[in-house]
Structures are given as structure tokens and as C-alpha cells.
């Protein structure tokens, strides 16, 4: 059994996902900042292509019927189209849509969605940085803007859905693995984008 799960099986899923992927998060955070995405519009363009690779690859998950049953409202949340609009705002070509990731089951997919939705929470900082190079929620930084309900409320609602799932230990383990796979995918996409 996964060490995190074994150590604290009583923790709600969201906390286990966080504990199980926090070192991955920190490495991705450091890699993104190390790539200096807000130093110039040119570097921001590389960041947008990275976001395009990630959000494009997971876009179809937001449409999946089984995942929408588990997480009602999921289909309202994808940010892929906003990333494409950001590229167009900056006069950049929108690359072909990346191949969709195929997590082995819904529980792994939930880990990927945790990674994506959580990234919108940390995006508060990225959004502020993007404003310093002249971008906004209606030009170039649409996909980093807060949800209309506010980032905090939106995140708490998503966490409540995760923590309300009736889920076995094996399924939790699959979700944690899915979150790690998502961060790993992001790390590889980052290296290919900058
Ligand atoms: C420079 C880049 C990044 C910075 C500075 C950053 C920063 C943060 C911060 C400050 C939080 C906590 C926010 C809060 O609790 O109010 C957070 C949460 C989170 N971020 Fe990032 N982040 C970055 C990139 C990413 C990326 C690229 C991903 C995913 C691909 C990601 C996924 C997450 C997730 C899943 C959470 C939620 C953690 C939880 O369970 O509470 N972050 N981030």
C-alpha cells in the first residue's frame, strides 16, 4: 500500500492527494518559476504552449460521463479553450490539439483532475505576474483568471466533491498515482516547451 495511505488512512481524499503529490508540486513550481515565464511575452508564449499541452491532453476527461457522475459540474470546468484564446490574443499559432491522456480508470483520472483544478488555486500568483507584462482576464491570461465564484470557493466546492466520494483504499491509491502521473506529464511537457 502507498506509504501516505498506510500512514493516515483516515485522511479525506483531498488531503491524501495533497500529501501524496506535494513534492511533485514543489518540483513543478520550481521548474515553472525557473523557466521565467513572465520575463517577456516571448517566454510567456512558451508557457502558453506548455499549458496547451497539459490542458489539451486532459480536456476530454472533463466530458466523460462517468467522471461527471462522480463529480457533478465537471464539464463546466475545463480551461483548454481559454488557453487557445490566450494564444490567439497574443497572435500565436494554436498548435494541434494534443493526444488525449488515457488514465487506466476513473480513479486515476480523478487524480489528474485534482492536479488540474488545484493548479487554478496557485494560478492566483501567476495571474498577478501576468498582469505585470500587460495581460488580463480578457487578454492573454484568460486561463489563469479566477473562476467567477472566486478561486477559494470554487476550490472548496471541488474538494467537497472529492471528499464526498465513496471510495475504497485501492481507489484512493489509484487517484494518488493519477495525480503523480499528471505532475510527471506536466514536468515533461515543461521541458519540451521551453
Ligand atoms: C510557478 C508555478 C506555481 C506556483 C507558484 C504554485 C503555487 C501554488 C500555491 C501557493 C498553492 C496553494 C494555494 C492555496 O492553498 O491557497 C498551490 C496549490 C496547488 N497547485 Fe500550484 N503552483 C504552481 C504551479 C502548479 C502547477 C503547474 C500545477 C499542476 C500542473 C499545480 C497544482 C497545484 C495543486 C493540485 C494545488 C492544490 C494543493 C492542495 O491540495 O491544496 N501548481 N499552488
Structural summary, described in words:
- Helices cover 65% and strands 0% of the residues.
- It is mainly alpha-helical and 194 residues long.
- It has helices spanning 3-7, 13-34, 41-58, 65-70, 80-89, 106-132, 151-163, 169-193.
- The chain is globular, with a radius of gyration of 16 Å.
- It has one domain (3-193): Heme Oxygenase, Chain A (Up-down Bundle).
- The protein contains eight helices and no strands.
- The structure holds protoporphyrin IX containing FE (HEM).
- The site of protoporphyrin IX containing FE has 15 residues, from α2 and α6.
- Protoporphyrin IX containing FE (HEM) binds next to α2 and α6.
Keywords:
Heme Oxygenase, Chain A, 194 residues, mainly alpha, binds protoporphyrin IX containing FE
Overall helicity: 55-70%
Number of domains: 1
Sheet with the most strands, sense and barrel status: none
Rounded average pLDDT: 95
CATH topology: Heme Oxygenase, Chain A
Separation of termini? Answer: 36 Å
Element-by-element helix/strand order: HHHHHHHH
Compute the CA-based radius of gyration.
Answer: 16 Å
Secondary structure category: mainly alpha
The CATH architecture term is Up-down Bundle
CATH homologous superfamily label: Heme oxygenase-like
Top-tier CATH class: Mainly Alpha
Could you list the spans in which at least 5 consecutive residues all have pLDDT below 50?
Answer: none
Count of helix runs = 8
Any idea what the shape is?
Answer: globular
E-strand count: 0
β-sheet strand percentage: under 5%
Bound molecules: protoporphyrin IX containing FE
Amino acid at each position: 500500500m502507498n506509504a501516505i495511505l498506510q500512514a493516515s488512512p483516515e485522511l479525506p481524499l483531498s488531503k491524501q492527494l495533497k500529501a501524496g503529490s506535494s513534492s511533485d508540486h514543489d518540483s513543478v513550481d520550481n521548474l515553472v518559476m525557473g523557466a521565467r515565464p513572465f520575463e517577456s511575452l516571448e517566454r510567456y508564449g512558451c508557457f502558453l504552449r506548455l499549458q496547451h499541452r497539459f490542458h489539451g491532453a486532459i480536456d476530454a476527461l472533463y466530458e466523460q460521463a462517468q467522471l461527471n457522475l462522480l463529480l457533478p459540474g465537471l464539464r463546466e470546468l475545463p480551461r483548454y479553450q481559454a488557453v487557445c484564446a490566450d494564444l490567439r490574443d497574443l497572435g500565436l499559432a494554436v498548435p494541434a490539439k494534443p493526444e488525449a491522456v488515457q488514465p487506466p480508470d476513473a480513479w486515476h483520472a480523478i487524480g489528474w483532475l485534482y492536479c488540474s483544478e488545484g493548479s487554478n488555486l496557485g494560478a492566483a500568483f501567476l495571474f498577478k505576474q501576468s498582469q505585470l507584462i500587460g495581460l488580463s482576464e480578457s487578454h492573454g491570461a484568460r486561463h489563469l483568471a479566477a473562476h467567477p465564484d472566486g478561486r477559494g470557493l470554487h476550490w472548496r466546492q471541488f474538494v467537497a466533491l472529492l471528499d464526498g466520494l465513496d471510495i475504497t483504499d485501492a481507489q484512493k491509491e489509484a487517484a494518488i498515482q493519477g495525480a503523480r502521473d499528471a505532475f510527471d506529464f506536466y514536468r515533461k511537457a515543461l521541458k519540451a516547451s521551453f
